[in-house]
Specification:
Length: about 625
């Protein structure tokens, strides 16, 4: 039995085709992830399914008793609405019975001597029995406990944005609709809660349609992928990992077809240039085929975002932190933190929501003054800060003008000069889109524009606060590739496990009021936390200890670097010796002497950088060897 049949859905926005002729059938048990770059129409498609927006054409058919639940990316509640009211918005008999029961229970607790309230409570209890809703109540308590929500009598307006999102998520899960629509459900959830949500959705009885930037979550939850690219939709069986394989195969086929078309066109054009005349019907048809091939739409690769931005030179001294303390209303948030941040190091700041991760980042970036202690930046440090809030001075300003305010031309690491307009095209802003006011962009496109604005300034130290929020998976993959080759220092706050595994070699972890630094990948660190909790349950009388050495290991990139670094150092030393010998032979040729001096200076700087990396990697290697003993 199908839940929803979608046929020929088409949507345009401001003369741009978002998607055309989307046809698919959703069955119970389907877990469908929607993939596409920001601005491709993912959220619009979901809103059409939810009935919030209408398609320009196409149809949707579903059973009469079909129910749908839509968890939006940003949630809104009515003024003075309690958590209880927000949770019980469903009209199902079990939820209605539970809502009446909870209200009666609270009233009875406020006045236990009231016979009228006792009678109302007893009737509500009987209604829950009749609706067989006790299982739903147990589920509700489990959800509230797992999401860390306070007393259900509190007003939703008193909660933080993250807690409000959790209330909306709890209400959506409690509803048990036939089709559950989730737009970025993992935003503002910590790693433990995301792992719990994965298990809950695995047992969900209905179908799920979701948009998420969390690729581990996407891979574990979905069994189908809908890709929206350049106005066309593609439907794949399988999870995110299988989707990547099948999409690569599709693109290879498309590339092969385009190559064949170009080859045929080349041969036919050569035939025409030899002076072919349309004397016969066959020749006329052949000439017409050439014209058709020339005007046929190219089957080239989908547009791919490209990041190729330089950075300024970064000296040895980056950030030195000593005796850092920060208090808020006399409550210590950061206590006695000391650390020396070096060149080419990548840090992920992790910990529970509200523990102080963003506060620490703002202290390190000097956007916040410490209560005591010092944060000292090196003289060559040039910061780039990519925050959670998307901020523009003037939303009426054109996209191209926003970028040209930073730089009209930049130089890539390869020495190529790129204009602001060309850079915008590499970030998937078409020439038409570049002359739009910023206000016309989607939320994701605005995030992408802010990212480009920061990178155009060529920073050498990057601070990233939840950078994966509102960025699509394509943009994230390209950003991760860029960060891996970034010659400066990266410090990122993120809950995205995939992102941290790729970019962070060290973790700054907020743990039980203290801050610890680990040489570990994030997944390994999370696994060690789970192991510690399991061990603590087995041995409740023993003091809980986290074995830090369990998570010390090289990342894949560090392992490759360690295997070749001594050879690299030897090569640089040899190159310096050769250059110094040439210097001795240069005599009084001032121009040549200056050139060789500049070459030696560059080589020595590269050698210093390699020696720093060797010291850092050798320290990890010693810890790894110590674990083996």
């Amino acid at each position: 039995m199908s839940l929803l049949t979608i046929e020929g859905i088409h949507k345009e926005f401001a003369d741009k085709v978002l998607f055309d002729d989307v046809t698919m059938t959703i069955h119970p048990g389907n877990r469908i992830g929607i993939i596409g770059v920001n601005g491709s129409g993912k959220s619009t498609f979901m809103k059409i399914i939810a009935g919030v927006e209408t398609a320009d054409r196409g149809t949707m058919q579903h059973p009469n008793d079909y129910r749908i639940r839509y968890l939006t990316q940003t949630v809104e509640f009515a003024p003075d609405q309690t958590i209880l009211d927000a949770l019980f918005t469903s009209e199902t008999p079990s939820v209605l019975a539970l809502k009446a029961y909870e209200q009666a229970r609270q009233q009875l607790e406020a006045d236990p001597a009231s016979e009228q309230r006792l009678e109302r409570f007893m009737k509500a209890q009987q209604a829950v029995d009749a609706a067989d809703a006790w299982e739903t109540e147990a589920k509700l308590k489990s959800i509230l406990n797992r999401l860390g929500l306070p007393d259900v009598t509190a007003d939703v307006s008193s909660l933080s944005g993250g807690q409000q999102k959790r209330v909306a998520l709890a209400a959506a899960l409690l509803d048990e609709a036939d089709l559950l629509l989730l737009d970025e459900p993992t935003n503002e959830l910590d790693a433990d809660t995301i792992a719990w949500l994965e298990t809950v959705l695995a047992d969900y009885r209905g179908a799920i349609l979701l948009i998420t930037h969390d690729r581990y979550f996407l891979n574990r939850v979905t069994n189908h992928i809908l890709e929206i690219a350049d106005g066309t939709s593609y439907f794949y069986d399988g999870n995110y990992e299988l989707f990547l394989e099948k999409r690569a195969e599709r693109k290879a086929r498309t590339q092969s077809m385009e190559q064949k078309r170009q080859n045929i066109l080349r041969r036919e054009l050569a035939w025409l240039r030899r002076g072919a005349k349309a004397r016969t019907t066959k020749q006329k048809a052949r000439i017409q085929r050439v014209e058709d091939l020339k005007h046929q739409e190219s089957l080239a690769e989908d547009e791919v975002l490209e990041v190729s931005v330089g950075s300024r030179r970064l000296g040895k001294k980056v950030i030195e932190v000593e005796h850092l303390l920060f208090q808020y209303d006399d409550t210590p948030i950061i206590r006695e933190f000391n650390w020396l941040f070096g060149r080419r190091e990548r840090y992920g700041i992790v910990g529970p929501n509200g523990s102080g991760k963003t506060t620490l980042m703002n202290l390190l970036a000097k956007r916040l003054e410490p209560t005591s202690g010092t944060v000292v930046h090196g003289e060559t440090v040039h910061l780039g800060y990519y925050g959670q809030q998307v901020e523009f001075e003037d939303l009426s300003r054109r996209v191209i003008d926003e970028i040209e305010r930073i730089a009209q031309v930049i130089h890539t690491p390869d020495g190529e000069s790129i204009t602001a307009s060309q850079m915008l095209e590499r970030f998937l802003f078409t020439p038409d889109a570049q002359y739009k006011p910023i206000a016309k962009l989607s939320g994701g496109e605005k995030r992408r524009l802010v990212l480009l604005r920061i990178l155009m300034d060529e920073p050498n130290v990057l601070f990233l606060d939840e950078p994966t929020n509102d960025l699509d998976t394509e943009t994230l993959s390209v950003l991760e590739d860029y960060l891996e080759s970034f010659p400066g220092t990266v410090i990122a706050v993120s809950h995205d496990r995939y992102f941290l595994d790729r970019i962070a070699g060290q973790l700054i972890a907020f743990e039980d009021g203290s801050i610890n630094v680990y040489h570990a990948e994030y997944s390994d660190y999370l696994a060690s936390l789970v192991e510690t909790k399991v061990q603590a349950k087995k041995e409740p009388k023993e003091k809980k200890e986290r074995v830090k050495t369990d998570v010390v290991k090289f990342t894949f990139k560090e392992q490759k670097e360690w295997e070749t670094i001594e050879d690299d150092i030897a090569s640089l030393e040899s190159a310096i010796e050769t250059a110094e010998a040439r210097l001795a032979d240069a005599g009084s040729d001032i121009r040549k002497v200056n050139e060789i001096y500049a070459e030696i200076s560059t080589l020595k700087e590269a050698l210093d950088s390699k020696m720093e990396r060797w010291e850092y990697l050798s320290e990890i290697d010693e810890q790894i060897e110590a674990q083996k003993r």
